[in-house]
Design goal:
Helices cover 26% and strands 40% of the residues. The chain has 131 residues and is of the alpha+beta class. It has a 6-stranded mixed beta sheet. β3 and β4 form a beta hairpin. The longest helix is centred in the middle third of the chain and has 14 residues.
Length: 131
């Protein structure tokens, strides 16, 4: 799981997904979004890395129990590409999240992820700040 954050998210080594993910990998994200394949996750990563090409993830805490790993993380990036219809702002962004990962035979098979999507959207100007 740590390699996922360090190698795939931060270093953009998506070729490692074949090694680290089961083919029928399932990701459940904010707003009820569900992705049901390794290739679907690769596509989602492409959307985020196009908008935030310099994204860097810091693993703040990580703990495991049996076949599950919980990771609390912080992402930092620059909004350099279009995201969700919002043109690049050049804004530096930072948001936090938690991912629960389930593994089988050393591969990621299922993840539940929640992150501060509202904060992200505010930082790129898609949602007005409450200030």
């Amino acid at each position: 799981v740590r390699r996922w954050f360090d190698e795939i998210y931060s270093k953009k080594r998506v070729e490692l997904m074949n090694e680290l993910h089961a083919e029928d990998y399932v990701w459940r994200g904010p707003g009820g979004v569900t992705i049901t394949s390794r290739d679907g996750m690769r596509e989602l990563l492409g959307v985020y890395t196009a908008a935030f090409p310099d994204v860097d993830f810091t693993v703040e805490d990580q703990m495991s129990d049996g076949d599950q790993v919980v990771t609390r993380w912080t992402a930092r990036a620059t909004h350099s590409g279009e995201f969700d219809g919002i043109q690049p702002t050049g804004n530096s962004i930072m948001f936090t999240g938690i991912t629960i990962s389930r593994l089988e035979n050393g591969r990621l098979v299922e993840e539940w992820e929640n992150f501060d999507e509202l904060s992200l959207m505010r930082q790129i100007g898609a949602v007005p700040s409450s200030d």
